[in-house]
Structure formats: structure tokens, C-alpha cells
Amino acid sequence: MDKLDSFTVSGWIYPVFDTVGYEPPDLENPDPFHPPTLTMAPEIVDNPQTVVSRFDAITQTGWALRLNPKMQLEFVVGQGTGTVQTFTIDEPVQGWGWAYVAASYDAQAGVVSVHLKEKPYSPGDQQTARTLAAQGDVSTVPQAGPMRIAAVRNGPGAANAIFEKPGHNFNGRIQDVRVTNKALSVEEIDAMADPVVPDELKPFVIADYDFSQKISSASVVDISPTGANGVVVNLPNRGVRGRFWAGESINWNERPDLYDAITFYADDLYSAEWSSDFSYTVPKDLKSGIYSARLTQGDFVEYIAFFVAAPKGKPSERLAVWVSDYNYMAYAGISLGVTAKQNYPSHNWNEADLQFMADNPEYGSGGVYNTHVDGRNFAYGTRLRPDLGMKPGALTYNFTQDTHVTAFLENFGFGYDVITDELVDEEGLDLLNQYDVVISSTHPEYVTIGMVNAIGSFTAEGGRFMYVGANGYFWSVGQHAELPGVMESRNFFDIADRYLSNGTRGGLMIETGMQPGAIVGLETSAMIFNGSSAYRRLPDSENPRGAWIFDGTSEGDVFGDYGIDRVHGAAAGFEIDKFNPSNGAPRHVLNLATSEPLKETIEEIKLSTSPIAVYYTPASPPDHGQADIVFFETANDGAVFSTGSITWMSSTPEKNYENDVAKITRNVVERFLDARAVFS
């Protein structure tokens, strides 16, 4: 392309960030029902959004087809002399709609032409769709450096960085980026908007990027004879609907040609690419567990947590604690404590972290619970960017609460190895089968289909599983096929875009056809962040099959009225699971205990394979939210014990572990570790 004189660059765009109409969220008076998250939008609202470029923003050299901050399509040319020529269509581009855009340069005539043709879905919008153009004179258009889609070069990267720094990023979908070695006419540009390049124009095409190919990879394919393939930088969304999707399929595996767009965002960071400051060689004899590097600077102290697993294929203990690193990635950088803290009075927040995040909003992005500049949720979590929640003293949720599991085991002298989602995802049942007992994290919400199957196979083959959390096995997620350390979740995506880039079904685990109730006996029922509740024993707790679970308890029928909830501490809280005999749970489940009445303000969750639920008014549905404790046996002397609450393990330290929650948990660990125990 460096020798190009005349050329045309074109493609479909679907912009989603209206820089003209953007209003920053009111963080002082947030809507409690729709709380905002921190956003990078104020940082980029005044920047252009690049569609295609060979432009260096530092030297002001090259060309770019872009939207300016007024949402006007323009073509810019810089000669590196400090002056940039701009050719602009005066009317702004409409957001949230498809348009075909192009720029051509006729070297002989010295003329640049810019074109825009709207192609909205709605018949109502189609009657007002516009065809717009602009034109101007320019002597030469420099051709140098890589061609970038959705960005310009904005300087060198950090030391040892793989890529240079991008800038002026596009926000929205792009597809069918094409370059020809001639200045096309208006009629020819219209023809280039077709799904396939017309035969009469193919001899002029020197780049034709088909994003429907290699969706699972970090590569983009140029199907022109040039074969100038590209690489994906950071984490744009692949396998999303393109301009010509019309409802024929909601699975990109079936019709990848309809999922030929990529959604780009300015804040979709994969790796911070920070330079290494120090390294630590893990001693071969270091015990498996959860560790951290303690960093100090004056009075300031910070931690970097990491996990040490046993050597592959060589477990050091009979019991494994399965920590949920995919869940940590999903919640990474969650900024609701800054923007909607009043909605979560039960939580113990780290105030210093909240203030730091408010002052540095780039740390409040990523994960799954933060939103992009257009209000849509992130799809990716990555362990290659900083996360303030992965340390001692952070928000008492997820990682911090999982240390209550290991603290309990250490208090009673139970040896354990640590395994992670990433390890189980890679090694599957082979890893679980190295242990007699596996204990879950407190919040194993984000898991793969393979993980759920591995738990079922583990217990069917005689393994003993303790699910000591809630809201578990809820979302179907996946690893990126090529980029290490990435978890993808599409739980808040449109139904037609819920298949993950690795090809598996995303969204709710029940959308995949899997029933977590069949594996652990419970299903998610509610979230409650304004006070937790105790448990009450049920008649099944007297059944000889499970009565041993309560041996040595002393609090009576109601127990567990203590814990970490700042409003009211108790063992049933934050997020809770219930026993539902119709969700695939085994017929012989013992429902041992249920939560006492919950607080008035809860978020009920009703799982269903039906897309809608119908209620009749004025009658109201019965209360759905509750936490249950269940036990059941599996084949080959396997067994499952599930507690139905995220706060369960956080109640065990009460009175130095002298309480019924700790006693029940200890009874189960001891019986599950007893090779002589028979469960049948």
C-alpha cells in the first residue's frame, strides 16, 4: 500500500457513542434503580473516532477516515508539516444505525471525496435515510505505516509493549473494510457496499477484511489477493451481528457470514503492559495456597495476590479449595461502590480504594459490571490489568470472602491445595479426581460448561463436593481461544449476540440446557444487601442420612445469626440459593435448613428457560427468595453438601470458630475426608 496513489477506503459503521448528545452521569444523585458506573467517556468525548487510518497523531502524518467530535464524517490528510487538511460532511452521522462510509483520492485530479449512505433497519427510518458527500482539493496523500481499523497511531507503547499506543478510537461496530487502488465513482462505491465485492471491481481491490473468519482468534483475515492479514489489539467483541443479519440465526457458528462485524470500544483494554519491577521464583517446596506480595512506600501499603497450585499431577493434600478467578475477573474494577454505595449498605468497602477509583476512573473499567461509553456492559475480564479487589482488606466480597474458606481450614488444621477456574478449565475432571474432597469458593458465579460437567462427573465417580457459597454456576463463560488470562461473558448482551467468541453458548447457564440444580441441589433465588438472616432447621435435619451434620451443635433450631453483614450479620446473606425440586435437583435431596424471613428489600431472581414471566394483578406472587442448606449422596460413595449463601463461610470465625456454622462445616469436612464413610 505504500506505493498507492489513487485509492478508495470504505466500510460499514454502526456508531454507538454520540459525542454530541453525551451527558455525564450524575454521580452525586444517581438513580438507585439504574446506578451508573464510572466511565472513560468524559476523557474521550472531545476526541475523533477513527474508522480506518494510516495516520500518526504525533507527527500529524498520513490519512484517516473518522467521525469528528461533532459526529461529522471527515477525511483528514497530514503532511507532517503541522497542518492537517480536513474534508467534512456537514450533517452529523446518526448514532445506533448502519451507514456505509467511504473516502476516495484521485491523485491525477488532486481531489478527495467523502461519502456517507445511511442504511437503517427500520422501514420508518429508511424513508428518511440520507446520502451525503463532501469534496476538496489536496496535492498528495502520504502512505506510510500500518493501516489501523478503529484507531490511529498515538505514540510508542510502554517499554517492552507489543503494540504501539492507539488513539482516537472508534466506539461501535465496523465491518467490510475495503481498499481499492483507484478512486471509485459514486456508483462503484454503492456497489462496494454489497456483502460480496462485485466481479467487475475485484481487480481493483487490494484489501477486503472479512471479520466473519477466525472469529475465535486474535487475527483478522484479508480475503483479497494481497492477503494483508491483521491482528486484533486489545479486546474488541467478535462474533457480533453485521449489517446483513436479518434473524436467520442467533448462533454465529451456524452462520458466521451474518456475524461479520467487530464491536470496538476505546476502553477495551487487554493488558496494561506495565514494565516488570520485580520477580519472584516460587520455591519448589512452597505449600499450595493464596499468597501476596506486600508493597510499601512510606505509610502506604498495597498487596498483589497470587495463587500457588500443587505441581501438575502431584497433589499435596486430599482436599482442594477451588477459588473463582473467573469471578474475580468478572468483578474486576467494579465501580458501583463509587457511584451507588447507598445501594449496598451490607458491604464492607475499602474507602481508600473507592477514593482512588473516583480520582482515577480508568481503574473503574473492565470486568463485566462496568459499562462502556455507550452504557453497554464489558464482555471481558482480564488478569493482565490492575484490580483493586484482589488483595487483603479489599471489599469483603469474592476474593476477600474466599480467604475465609482457607482461614477456616487452617484454624482446624485441615490441609488443602488451591486450584483455580483457569486450571479446572484446562485440566477438567483429571484435576478434580486428584482430590477426595473439593470445596467451592463463596461465589462461583462465572463458570464454563466444562466446569459444571466436571463437578457432576467428579461426584458421580465418588468425589465429595462442598458448595459453600451461592449464586454459583450461574453464567456460562469461556476463555479466549488465543489470549491468555481472559474470561469472556456475554450475560448482558442481546440474545442474538450471546454466543461467545470461542463458539460456546453464553448467557445464563440454563440457556445452555445445563441445570446447576442437578449438580449442587440449589439455584440462585435472591440478592440481599441490607441485612442477612439466620437459618432454621427443617425436619430433614433429623433424618439419619444427614443428622450427623448437626452433631455437636448447640444454638437450637435457629442458628447462624452472626456474620460480616454491616446491617445485620448472619449466615444467609448477600446472595442466596434455594432448593427447587423442579430444577433437576436429585429426588433424594435432604433439605436440612432454610433461611429465616428475609429483609423487606431484596432482589429476587427467578430462573426459567422461558423468555418471559406473566403475573396477574392485583394478586402478587409468593415470596421467592430464600436460602436453603441441602445434602445428597451420589454414586460410588460420593456426596454433595450445599449451604445456599455467600456469607456462610464468613460466619464461621464468630467466637473464635466456636459456633454452629463452623461446627456444621467442620462436621462435613471431616466426614467427607473419612475414606471409611459410606454414602448410600
Explain what you see:
The chain folds into two domains: 7-264, Jelly Rolls; 289-673, Class I glutamine amidotransferase (GATase) domain (Rossmann fold), CATH 3.40.50.880. It is elongated. The strands form eight sheets. Strands 1, 6, 7, 8, 12, 13, 14, 15, 16 and 17 form a ten-stranded antiparallel beta sheet that branches. A hairpin with a 6-residue loop joins strand 27 (478-479) and strand 28. It is built from 14 helices and 37 strands. Helix content is 14%, strand content 28%. The longest helix is centred in the last third of the chain and has 14 residues, at 660-673. The chain is α+β, with helices and mostly antiparallel strands and 680 residues long.
